[in-house]
Specification:
The protein has a single domain, classed as Uracil-DNA glycosylase-like domain (Uracil-DNA Glycosylase, subunit E), CATH 3.40.470. Helix content is 39%, strand content 11%. The chain has eleven helices and eight strands. Strand 7 and strand 8 form a beta hairpin. The N terminus is likely disordered.
Length: 271
């Protein structure tokens, strides 16, 4: 760096640099002015070399989803259900179906109860402890309430009169552990048996008791929204209703249940 034709010594140059820094000139400059705003926008980005691929022997193998072993549970259920020409044969087909794990922990296969010639078929969710012990659907507190509810509109599971009877079954024939809700896979496995059950009984009307029954027959959940609204299930008129177990926990909901029963009675009378 030169000034007035003389070379600067080290200390003079250092003092000049410190003075420029104090003035705010903290960037190095060249002999020619540079317009930073006129820099070309096509500057190439620095290339980062790609890492070399590991030898073929060192590459990890791609993870593969193992193919499911054994037969398709739903397909097996469809074939078994289709081969049942009577209710007795259907029950035997369900008892011989070994691809649903629920049967391993259940005491009984809960098939059905009531008059199979009835105009009304009730579909519940799954057996509870009392049902598992006795081998019949709806025999506990919820079942006793259900009997009183339908007796109020002149229907009974015990009468031989088809006009005054009802027939009852569940989506699942085996009790889930701890009385938990049926899982979608379990419903899918047993749905072919349920559909065949409806075909063999051939009821005029179906009552869907609770969320699992609606999920199986309608593909929908939300019983408090669905209840009281007639739909179609298995090719027949179907009425979703709140489960009697829910009514035992929420007695104030019995008013809506009574309205649903009256709707059912009116449909029977009209038919």
């Amino acid at each position: 760096m030169q000034t007035q034709g003389h070379d600067l010594d080290y200390y003079a140059a250092l003092a000049a640099l410190e003075w420029q820094i104090e003035l705010g000139a903290d960037c190095a400059i060249g002999d020619d002015p540079l317009d930073c705003y006129a820099l070309p926008d096509h500057l190439e980005k620095p290339r980062v070399p790609e890492p070399a691929a590991p030898p073929a022997a060192a590459r990890p193998a791609m993870a593969r989803t193992p193919a499911p072993e054994g037969p398709d549970p739903v397909l097996v259920a469809q074939q078994a259900a289709a081969g049942a020409a009577t209710l007795e044969a259907l029950r035997a087909a369900i008892e011989g179906y070994e691809l649903c794990d629920l049967r391993k922990g259940a005491r009984s296969t809960v098939f059905a109860d009531g008059n199979p010639k009835a105009r009304v078929m009730i579909i519940g969710e799954a057996p509870g402890r009392d049902e598992d012990q006795q081998g019949k659907p709806f025999v506990g507190r919820a079942g006793q309430l259900l009997d009183r509810m339908f007796a109020a509109i002149g229907l009974s599971r015990a009468t031989p009169d088809a006009e005054a009877a009802f027939y009852i079954t569940n989506v699942l024939p085996w009790r889930p552990p701890g009385n938990r809700d049926p899982e979608p896979a379990e419903i899918a496995q047993m749905l072919p048996f349920l559909a065949r059950h409806v075909e063999l009984v051939d009821p005029d009307l179906i009552v869907l008791m609770g969320n699992a029954a609606c999920a199986a027959a309608l593909g929908k959940r939300g019983i408090l929204r669905l209840r009281g609204n007639w739909a179609e299930a298995f090719g027949r008129p179907a009425l979703p209703m709140t489960h009697p177990a829910y009514l035992l926990r929420q007695p104030q909901a019995k008013r809506e249940a009574w309205a649903d029963l009256l709707s059912l009675r009116a449909r029977l009378n009209a038919g």
